[in-house]
Amino acid sequence: MDAILQFFKDWASGELTGGHGVDWFAFVSIPFFTGIVGWLINWSGLWMLFSPIRFHGFKVPGLREIATVIPRKLQEVPGLMEGGVGWQGIVPARAAKMGSIAVDKVIAKLGTPAEFYAQLEPEQIAEHIVTVFEPELPGLVDEVMRKEHPRLWRDLPTPVKNAVVSRVQAQLPGIVKSITDEIGVHINQLLDPKIMVIDHFRKNPDLVVKVFRDVGQRELNLMVAFGFIFGFLLGIPVAVVDQTWHIWWLLPILGVIVGWITNALGMWLIFEPPEPRRILGIKVQGLFLRRQDECAEVYARIIADDVITLERIGDFLMDGPRGDRTRQMIATAMLPAIDKAAGPLRGAVNVAVGSRRFSSIRESFAQEAVGRTITPFKDPVFSKRQSEKIRVLIARRTKELPPRDFVEMMRSAIKEDEWMLYAHGAIMGAAGGFLHLGFFNWGWIPGFPP
């Protein structure tokens, strides 16, 4: 013990450092300075993660071509491959990638398209379609008949016209049920969650930011707070090195190391280790993983309210890449029901207008009815009501995910880009070192008076 005390006494007096004693004000100020810089690094690092939502910057002629030959890592800087100099938040810039990983790593494990569709209760969907569509039927029948055979429709007595409409209305529940059943049977071919989610995230990068912030805001706040703690603790050995060798460029160099490690420790604190471990008898697990059940509820609400909704499923079924197939399937399901609706009038109508014209009327009615049949899918109020069932399913399945899969849901999309945060920390750490020299010039810089 005496030897250790003597060593520190000799070090503080300067006998071990070339006659330069310890400047205690400088020594004490360095950890506080690195602590503040660490806080700024993590705070600004979060800004870089999420802001701005859209690219802010300017185009540089020829930069797009140059960007194709620079190292691949640098090509990942937002905007560079489009020839722009500026910034877009890493998370919104990788919105489509986040959507892809969300499907591959999480949503695909939560349920198949058929399971999601079943949770939406097709029977209730069919009832809602009938309720919305039924009042439109008289107008639709009138519109089709006026277009396809105006003279016949004009000459028919009103009671006969009403009878045709009534028979169609009577067939409507059966028609709609056959359509919703048919969609359910083929939903795995008609609905591609990956395309749907990627496209929605790409068009709405703010939604991806919402996922991160709402699910992990507590951990993100802790990351900023720990930036000061990590910076302060790392500043102690920096102060020792600085006061031992008194070389002016050591502070900026050590600032690079401190800045890099501060950001890396912040990310590790949130996400690692995914499984609980005991280190020196202390249970250690990523902060984000400790709240898996709570985070699962938040994540499920966002996905059910904004991503996998009845409204968006309807949009995808009708206007997505397989929309033509959906429309044809609905139209085909309509035709037998239209024949039943014609009933005993069918023979007379065939004689009056000919079989070709009758087929044209059937096809026209079926095609016109397609859009109106699926429109209730897009009713936001009804969609919101049905989304609660999706939320319950996703929350339950997300809670059951292994911790490693759960953490990938949040981290995988940005993992390849974390180097930008670490590099940003290193640059700010070096800047902090130069600032410290500027504020507290103790004479270590050649050419400056002591």
Automatic annotation (TrEMBL):
Q: Where are the transmembrane segments?
A: 24-50, 220-241, 247-271, 419-445
Which UniProt keywords are present, listed alphabetically? Membrane, Transmembrane, Transmembrane helix
Give the species this sequence originates from. Answer: Nocardioides thalensis
Specify the protein name: DUF445 family protein
